[in-house]
Design goal:
By secondary structure, this protein is of the alpha/beta class. It has two domains: 220 residues, UDP-N-acetylmuramoyl-L-alanine:D-glutamate ligase (3-Layer(aba) Sandwich); 132 residues, Mur ligase, C-terminal domain (Protein-Tyrosine Phosphatase, Chain A, Alpha-Beta Complex), CATH 3.90.190.20. Helices cover 40% and strands 17% of the residues. Strand 3 and strand 4 form a beta hairpin.
Length: 448
């Protein structure tokens, strides 16, 4: 049934018509669809990455390390900021519209042809299936796979034998789905751990670590903790940070990142630890798989320095940083970065949020912990948008700093850029939708 061919916008509109937070279909249904597609996941080698915050950055670091080592790397990430094809990276470059549409139409046609035999995939499941087809077509050596939500029941967890699992920071988010406590949420994240599969995890939250260790023991999976004490920040600037490893395969090495946020040192350390394990599972050209030597360490150092990740304390213009922080823990680490970036002038924040987040707590953290000189507030162009009146009311209840409110993101961003002096810093946070809208403005106006 090939008479209906959709263009990229029509395909994206079709996908957006699938409720993003509706009940998932079953794993058996997903496996049935994969079988009907010819099992595109078979023959691929996977790294599976979960976590509340930081998992996307871990994927970016790890993908770059593998690329530096000579591998052909696929990376499946979410969400996208501007183009839906950002979710499917091959060697760090997003898939083409043609590749996306070929994969999309295979699944689209299958759903129409087998209606009644299979359940239509959810929004995220559909994208995951697209990724499997694209990566098989491109014949990648290894696929870095980011969990969408949770882990145990996530669409990506249909993958049965990953080479290594990574669990980044665990904190409270999506509590209505994943549970109301850290141990409950950690249990969902730890659901990606498979029998005998090594797991590298952020050991910074004891409640989460205990759950991850228990799950690893049940699965007879080697567990590799990375603790915040395993590294120390030695230098900060407006262009990045430098940290020294105190433990692990890279102990004694000083590593530089083109990120200004301290939390990226943990994400980079998780990626490096996972890469060390992968050396024993992948044939990396010209390396000793038993002991990491100088060449391997140099490759990791180069990869970490040159890793970029849109919307994560990203410098989008001189003195303008954009971060996708959109929950309590994300805002907390965002604010830590804000306080540590050298600034001789004033600091302003452009902020918006989606309605289902605990925006009152986020705004309370912002007003208590950061020394912003004023807030530019706006409303997202989304059905999930938190009304501007609610945002303004929350800021007015928390403090007396100047507020400037705009109905449209374009007007808010334009005002923020005019308000910012040459020695001032402007930060953008509160929602990945906001980050994506600003990225689109920058691209369309050719400001970059």
């Amino acid at each position: 049934m090939n008479e209906c061919r959709l263009n990229i916008k029509e395909a994206e509109d079709y996908l957006n018509g699938i409720p993003r937070f509706s009940k998932k279909t079953t794993m058996d249904n997903e496996r049935r669809i994969l079988a009907l597609l010819g099992h595109p996941e078979e023959g691929q080698r996977f790294v599976h990455v979960a976590g509340t915050n930081g998992k996307g950055s871990v994927c970016a670091f790890l993908g770059r390390i593998l690329l530096e080592q000579g591998h052909h790397v696929g990376t499946f990430i979410s969400p996208h900021l501007v183009d839906i094809t950002e979710r499917f990276l091959i060697d760090g470059e997003q898939a083409s519209e043609e590749e996306f549409l070929r994969a999309f139409h295979r699944i689209y046609d299958l759903c129409r042809e087998r209606e009644g035999e299979i359940v239509h995939p959810s929004y995220f499941e559909f994208l995951f299936l697209i990724g499997m087809l694209i990566f098989r077509e491109r014949q990648v050596d290894v696929t870095v796979l980011e969990v969408g939500l949770g882990g145990r029941m996530d669409a990506t967890n249909v993958i049965e034998n990953p080479l290594v699992c990574v669990i980044a920071s665990v904190s409270l988010d999506h509590t209505e789905i994943l549970g109301e406590t850290i141990p409950e949420i950690a249990g969902e994240k730890a659901g990606i751990i498979k029998e005998g599969c090594p797991v590298v995890y952020d050991d910074g939250v004891p409640e989460a670590s205990a759950v991850i260790r228990e799950r690893a023991a049940q699965q007879k999976a080697p567990a590799w903790p990375v603790n915040p004490a395993d590294f120390e920040i030695v230098e900060r600037s407006q262009s990045g940070i430098c940290f020294r490893m105190k433990a692990g395969m890279l102990a004694g090495e000083e590593l530089k990142l083109s990120f200004v946020a301290d939390y990226q040192a943990m994400n980079a350390s998780l990626a490096a630890a996972a890469a060390g394990i992968l050396r024993q599972k992948l044939s990396l050209p010209g390396t000793d798989v038993l002991q990491p030597g100088p060449a391997w360490a140099d490759g990791v150092r180069r990869a970490l320095l040159h890793t970029s990740w849109p919307g994560r304390m990203e410098p989008v213009l001189p003195g303008v940083y954009m971060d996708g922080a959109h929950n309590d823990d994300g805002i907390r680490v965002f604010l830590e970065a804000v306080t540590r970036i050298p600034c001789s002038g004033r600091k302003y924040l452009l902020f918006s949020a989606v309605a289902e987040k605990d925006y009152e707590t986020m705004i309370d953290e912002i007003c208590r912990q950061a020394d912003f000189d004023g807030f530019i507030l706006t409303e997202l162009d989304s059905y999930r948008a938190l009304p501007l009146a609610d945002i303004r009311g929350a800021f007015e209840r928390k403090g007396g700093k100047p507020l400037w409110c705009f109905d449209r993101i374009e007007a808010a961003f334009s005002f923020a850029r005019e308000k910012k002096g040459p020695d001032d810093l402007l930060f953008i946070a509160g929602s990945l939708y906001l980050a994506g809208s600003v990225k689109e403005l920058l691209r369309s106006c050719r400001m970059q």
